[in-house]
Amino acid sequence: MNDKLQQLTDKLYNEGLSKGKQEGEAILAEAKKKAEAIIAQANKQADDIIGKAKADAEDYRHKVESDVKMASAQSLQATKKDIENLLVAKMAAEPVKASLADGAFLKEIIKEVAKKFSAENPEDLSLVLPEKLQKELEPFVAGELAKQLGKEVKVSFSKKIAGGLTIGPSDGSYFVSLTDETFSELIGEYLRPATKKLLFG
Question: Is the pTM for the entire model greater than 0.85?
Fold first, then answer.
C-alpha cells in the first residue's frame, strides 16, 4: 500500500515537474523570442538614427562647402573689383583732376562747351566753376567769354567742384555736369573693360 502511494506520489510529482518544466521552457522560449524582437527593433532604430545622422552630417558638409565656395567667389570678385577701381582711379581720376584744375585748360573747355551750348540754346547761360580758380576765371567769363557768345553769362564759384564745370540755362531749368568726377566716371567706364581684361584675362 505504501509502495503504491509512493508510486502515485512520485508519478504525480514527476508529471507536475515535467509539466512545470515544459511550461517554464515555453515561457523562457517566448521571453527569448520577445527579447530578440526587442533587440532587433532597437538595432533597427539605432541603424536608422545613425543613418539619419550620417545623412544630416553629409548634407551639412555640402551646405558648408557650398557656402564657403560662394563666400570665396564673392570675396574674390570684390577684391578684383577693388583692384580694378584703384587702377582705373589711378589712370583716369588723377590725370583728369589735374587737367580740369588747370585754369588755361579749363578756359578752352569752357569756350568750346559754351559755344556749342549757346548755338543750341538761345537763353543766357549760367556756369558753376571751382572756387579755387575764381581769380583766374571770373574776368575771363565776364569779358572774353561773354563777348565771344554775345550774351550774358552768369557765373558762380563752388567749393564742391574741384575741377571742371556745370553749365545750363540761367533760368536753372537744367544743367550739364562736366566736373572732374563726371569726366572720371565717363573715362573710367571706357577704361574698365580693358583694365579687367589686362588684369584678369
Answer: no
